[in-house]
Amino acid sequence: MVPLVSQMNPDASTVAAGAPIEVDLTPIAEGQDIKVFWRGKPIYISHRTKKQIEEARAVSVSSLPDPQSDEQRVKPGHDQWLVVVGICTHLGCIPIAHEGQYDGFFCPCHGSVYDTSGRIRQGPAPTNLAVPPYTFVSDTKIQIG
Amino acid sequence: MSGPSDFQPTNPALKWIERRLPIMGLMHSSFVAYPTPRNLNYWWTFGAILSFMLGVQILTGVILAMHYTPHADMAFKSVELIVRDVNYGWLLRNIHASGASMFFFAVYIHMFRGLYYGSYKEPREVLWILGVIIYLLMMATGFMGYVLPWGQMSFWGATVITNLFSAVPYFGESIVTLLWGGYAVGNPTLNRFFSLHYLLPFVIAGVVVLHIWALHVAGQNNPAGVEPKTEKDTVPFTPYATMKDMFGVSCFLLFFAWFIFYMPNYLGDAENYIPANPAVTPAHIVPEWYYLPFYAILRSIPNKLAGVVAMFGAIIILAFLPWLDSAKTRSSKYRPLAKQFFWMFVVVCIGLGYLGAQPPEGIYVIVGRILTFLYFAYFLILLPLLARIEKPRPVPNSIADDVLAKTGGKPAPMVSTVIALMVAGGLLLGGAESARAAEGSTKPPAQKWSFSGPFGKFDRGAMQRGLKVYKEVCASCHGLSFVAFRNLAEAGGPGYSVAQAQAFASEYKVKDGPNDQGEMFERPGRPADYFPSPFPNEQAARAANGGAYPPDLSLITKARSYGRGFPMFLIDFFTQYQEQGPDYVTALLQGYEDKPPAGFNLPEGSYYNTYFPGHAIKMPKPLNDGQVTYDDGSPATVAQYAKDVTHFLMWAAEPHMEARKQLGMQVFVFLILLTVLLYFTKKKVWANAH
C-alpha cells in the first residue's frame, strides 16, 4: 500500500531540482520587481519604494483577513525587499504585480487583491501570499530554499 | 437479466455453447424479450444515446492515444500533428473533443428526465446511485482529458482544479503535491492524467453494466410512473425499443455532426490553442461548459473550504435524492407543484452555468449566491416539504390506461422537444463564450471570408498573396512552426505544385546535423522541413522585441477570439459564424492609430491599437501601403495585405478545413436519409402498439 501511494510523490530528480537557488539583487532598481522560478513556482522579488513600504505599514494589522504585520513578512534590515511566492492562495493562479487598488498584486482568475506586502486585502483568497524560505547571503544576494 | 430465459437456439453448435455458457439466452432475455413499458417517450432514448457515446469516445480515444505523446514538451505539438498529418486525424480529434460535450449534454438530459419522472424512487435507488457514480467518473475523465492537449486552458484548468484539494484542512498541501508529483502542475501530472484518462472510461463501462443490470432487475420507470401490471402494459424490447432508440441515436448524430464538421471549436476555448505556459495566467480561467454550474457554486461562496465543500456537495446531494423526496407519486406529471418547481430548478441550473462563465465580480457574485441557495433549497427544503404538503392528482390505473387516454390527444411533442433541447443546450454551451469578452477593446467588424459557411473554400490567390506578405513582413519576428513547406503543395492549400513548394523551400537555410565530424551545418530547405522560426527561443525573441513575445502564427487565427455576447453566440451556432479569430487578426493589422485618444496613457515602447485588448501593443505598425509588391494586380494597400495574410494564416491554422466541410456535407446527406428511413421503420413497427 505504501509504495502504491508513495510513488505519486515528487521523484528523486524532481526533489533534487528543487534545491535552493541564489539570486543576485543588484540589477533590480527601486520600484521594480523580478520573477524567478524555484521548484516550478514563480517567486516575486520586489524592490519596494518608500511609499510602498509606508503603505504596507500604515494599515492596522487586526483589520486584515490574515493578520500579519509587514515586519513579519520581510527580513529585518532589508525592509525594501519583499520576496513572495507568486501563487494566489485561492486556486493557484499567478497574480499580476503592480496591479489592483493596493498597488500590490491582483489575481486575474477570481479577483483577489493583495497589497504591497503581499497580504490579502480583498477577494476569495484565504491567506496572504506565502513567503518562501530565504536568507540574505550578503546585502545584495539571497538564497531561496 | 430478468430471470431464466426460455431462449433455445436450434443450431446444434450454438446449443452446445449455450449449455455451457448461456450467453445467448442472457442477451435474448436482456435485449430482445425484455419487457419495456409501452408508454416510454423520447426522453428515454437518451440511455441508448449515452451507451453509444461511451462506445464512440472509447473507440476514438484508443485511436488518438496511438498518436499522442504524453509529455509536457511534446503534448501540444503531438495533438497538432494528429490534426495536420494523421489521415483523418482532424476528424477523430473533432469527434473525441465534441463527443465529450455531447456525452455530457446527453447525460444532463438523462438526469433531468430521471428527476422529472421520479426514476430514483423505490425500488430504483441503487440504479440512481450507480448513475451518480457514473456521472462523477465522467467528470473526472472529462477533466483529465481536457488537460491532455496541454494548452493554456488545459494547464490552468488543471492548476485550479487540483488546487481545490488544498482546501482540505491540515493535509491539503501534501495531497496536492501527491496529485502533481512535483511542486507544480508539470510533466508528471500530465503523465498520470493520461494514464487515468485511459483507465477511467473502462471503469465507467463497468459501472454502466451494473447500472443496466440494476435497471433490468427493477424494470424501467415510465412517464406515468406506475409499474407494469399485465402483458398489455409492455412491449418486447426488440423490435420496439430497439427501433425507437436507433431513431433517437440517429437524430442525436445529426446534432453531433453539426459540431464535428461545422463548429468544431464552438465549445472549446480559443486560449487552448496557445501552448501551456506556467508563467502566464489567462485573463479568465473557464472550465468546460459542463462544469460551469458547479464552478459558479464554488465561486459564489467567499470561504475557500466552504466553497469546495459546496461544490462537491452539489453533486453528492444527488445520491441522497431518493430519501430527500419521499413523495409517493413518482411522475411529476401528476404532481402540479413539483412540476413547476422542477422547471424552475432547470432554470436555476442553466443560470448557474451562465454565471460560471462570467467574471467573478459585482452583480454576478450576488446572483450566483442567490442561485446557489436556490439549488440547495430545491433538494433540502423544497422536495421534503412538497412530499408532505402537495396533493397529487390521481395516477392512471395502468400503463395501458395511460396510453389509451392519450390516443387521439395531442401528438408526441417531438418538435417542441427538439426546440427546447436546442435552446437549453445552446444557452448552457454558449455560456462559456461570453466569458471571453475582452476588456478594454473594441469588437472587430465582421468580414466576408470565402472560407466561411458550410460550403466555404479558401481563395488560392489570397493565400498566395498572404504567403508573400508573411514571408516579406511577418516572418522577421513571427514563426510559423507547425507549417511545413510540403503543406504548400497539398490539396486544400495555396495551390502550389510540388516543384514550386520544393523551390520555395530551397530558398531557406535550415540547420541540420550533426554530420560525421559532429558539427551542425546549414543546408537548403526541403519540402519536409518546417518554416524556420526567426528566434532560437522565447527569451531571445523577448530580448529582441522589448520584452514582448511575438507569438507563433501557425494557430493565431484559432487562438484569438472575442466575446460575441448574448444572444449572438446562440445565433452563431445556427449561422456557423466562427470567424472571430480571422476578423480579429485583420482588424488588429489595420487598427493602428498614430495618436492615442486624449487621456489614454500609452506606455513607452508601445503603440496604440484600437482592437488590441488594453490598446497598448508592443508591435509597431507592421504594414504600410505599397510595402509588398503583388504580381496579380491586386491593390497594394494595408487593407488588402491584412486580409490576404489572414486568409493565409487561417489555412495555416486549419489546413484540412476544406476536407472537413466537404465530408460534412456527405455525412449530413447520409444521416438525414438514415434518420428519415429509421423514422418510418419505427412508425411501422409501433403502428399496432399505439
Automatic annotation (TrEMBL), chain B:
Alphabetic keyword roster: Electron transport, Heme, Iron, Membrane, Metal-binding, Respiratory chain, Transmembrane, Transmembrane helix, Transport
Location(s) in or outside the cell: Membrane
Superkingdom, natural source: Bacteria
Record carries keyword Heme: yes
Gene3D superfamilies: Cytochrome Bc1 Complex, Chain C, Cytochrome c-like domain, Cytochrome c1, transmembrane anchor, C-terminal
PROSITE patterns recorded: CYTB_CTER, CYTB_NTER, CYTC
Domain named Cytochrome b/b6 C-terminal region profile: residues: 227-397
Cofactor note: Binds 2 heme groups non-covalently.
Protein name: Cytochrome b
Organism: Bradyrhizobium retamae
Classification of source organism: Bacteria, Pseudomonadati, Pseudomonadota, Alphaproteobacteria, Hyphomicrobiales
